[in-house]
Amino acid sequence: MKNDLYPNVVNITNLPFEQQQFAQDVVQGLTKKQKTLSSKYFYDATGSKLFQKIMDLPDYYLTRAETEIFTYQKEEIISGFCSAQPFNLVDLGAGDATKTKILLRSLLQRQTNFTFVPLDISLDALQELQSNLALELPQLPVVPLAGDYFKALAQLKRESGMRQVIFFLGSNIGNFPFAEIKIFLKKLCQFLQAGDQLVIGFDLKKDPRLIRQAYDDAEGITAAFNFNLLRRINETFTGNFELNNFQHFAEYNPISGEMRSYLISTQDQEVTLQDLDFTLNLQAWEAIHTESSYKFSEAEIQVLAAEADLKTQLIFTDKNHYFADVLFSVG
Ligand code: AVI
């Protein structure tokens, strides 16, 4: 029996609530002519561990470049947003907040009046971060918020005279479909007022070979990260994706700046997701698009900012000019 709300999915209402959106997205994505799966489902416990490993890989330059920016330019970054007025430092998608902690230490040394608000979809990651901060920076005021970015931001209290400084690091902005970046920034601005600020991490356009290598690393960790999505679907919906019948493939388009990752079916095959009464037929060499990671030029960043009515205040880059953390002001 089909469900009116989710016409492509059978018996979806029998699934636990948190799996219903996942089920709908999987079936809709795999029913399209050009098949897709959303990269937002990479991050279960195994996927998050694999992403931690990716961030330490020699080929994945992004984390090193942004850490370099934070390490060597922390005082300049802090001077760009710090004020005598109290503020919330909101870390969107905080994870383990490794890079943010570099600034938090300096802010505490300066005896700044601020509250750290890590915001993450994963409650587990937030709890781990909170206990870690209690040990490492016991004097830091922390108000963690769990959930979807905008739902969690809506809960954020703004006492009178308080400013918001929002961090969105790690090139997470690059994982939105390009048309949605502008929409995301505009939506974010709805939570902000004149005087609030944003720090966004952008991966910059560079030698295409370097970019491609970062998403198809020599150790095969990114491939495992991509395959984990099929493993997660098998586990969640009693599926029979045979991982050996797929290939990880990554290609970069130097004009659009889009780094695309795929899972390619290496043979004709039929896959069943039992819990969803869903059967998928794949032809040999048919591709499932699993992730886009956009790269930007500084000019493109300026255009995006102008479209969202943000004013570019300062641009910080690493010595290789691989990555940029940009400080914007609102209003
Ligand atoms: C989380 N995000 C910014 C990473 C990226 O670079 O797009 C995810 C990732 N995918 C493959 N490697 C890393």
Distance between the termini: 51 Å
Radius of gyration: 21 Å
Give the CATH H-level superfamily of the largest domain: Vaccinia Virus protein VP39
The structure class reads alpha/beta
Q: List low-pLDDT spans.
A: none
Enter the CATH topology name of the largest domain.
Rossmann fold
Bound molecules: N,N-dimethyl-L-histidine
Strand order of the largest sheet: 4-3-2-5-6-13-12
Rough outline: globular
Q: Provide the domain count.
A: 2
- How is the main sheet built? 7 strands, mixed
> In CATH's first tier, which class of the largest domain applies?
Alpha Beta
CATH architecture of the largest domain: 3-Layer(aba) Sandwich
Overall helicity: 25-40%
Mean pLDDT: 94
Output the helix-strand order. Answer: HEHHEHEHEHEHEHHEEEEEHEE
Q: What's the number of helices? A: 10
By DSSP, the count of extended strands is: 13
Précis, in short:
The protein has 331 residues and is α/β, with parallel strands linked by helices. The protein has ten helices and 13 strands.
Question: What attributes characterize this protein structure?
Answer:
methyltransferase; seven-stranded mixed beta sheet; SAM-dependent_MTases_sf; 38% helix; MeTrfase_EgtD-like; Rossmann fold; 331 residues; binds N,N-dimethyl-L-histidine; alpha/beta; single chain; 2 domains; 24% strand; L-histidine N(Alpha)-methyltransferase; 13 strands
